[in-house]
Amino acid sequence: MPTPDFDLYLVTDRTQTRGRDLLWVLEQALDGGVKAVQLREKDLSGKELFELAEKSNLLCRRYNARLFINDRIDVALAVDAHGVQLGKTSIPIETARALLGPGKSIGFSAHSLEEARQAEQSGADFVLFGPVYFTPSKAGYGAPQGLTPLQEIVVKISRPVYAIGGIKSDSIADLRRVGVRGVALISAIISADDPKDASQALLQSLRR
Ligand code: 3NM
Q1: pTM over 0.85
Q2: Which H helix or E strand runs over 6?
Q3: Does the Cβ of 107 fall within 6 Å of ligand 1?
Q4: CA 192 to ligand 1 center in whole angstroms
Q5: What is the second-level CATH architecture of the domain 8-207?
């Protein structure tokens, strides 16, 4: 099972780019040092997502970065992405593993210790937990969970844990103290005035 080798995981949302082309924003982030991207464009058709995934994958490869596809194992296989990001409405992790093989990476988005434990037992390579803070992203992720349950998950499971939800540069010191492997985020890069600068600043905080 591949161990994640990144500490900053950029999640896409093309509705939050403030009118800029998503691939342009993505390239800025990669230029700023981002090494892992999750393509999360849930409303696209299979054809549209495939085309965007192909372009994103080429871009990521050019910058030696990992591309994950949210939920769509078929699209991940079709473009030979690095892996997939699954959640509780996705097909089971064991089935995804059987389809993807041992070389692809599987992340799981958990919202409780129980879900994180189950994901680990089912063979997920890493876990996202959130929302840690209030997130302006509209979809219903539920109330902010704070640092205490995050820390419990970090302590109780042995796979790497990434925090997600409302993360900005100034949250990173607290998150690192809790022991997360890294952070996942949308708006702090995708909606930033300068996505390259924002990526560099976040990476600097993570490595400080
Ligand atoms: N998943 P931002 S919170 C995609 O809790 C996503 O599982 C979450 O966006 C979860 O960095 C979230 O802009 C949104 O807050 C993250």
Answers
A1: yes
A2: none
A3: no
A4: 16
A5: Alpha-Beta Barrel (3.20)
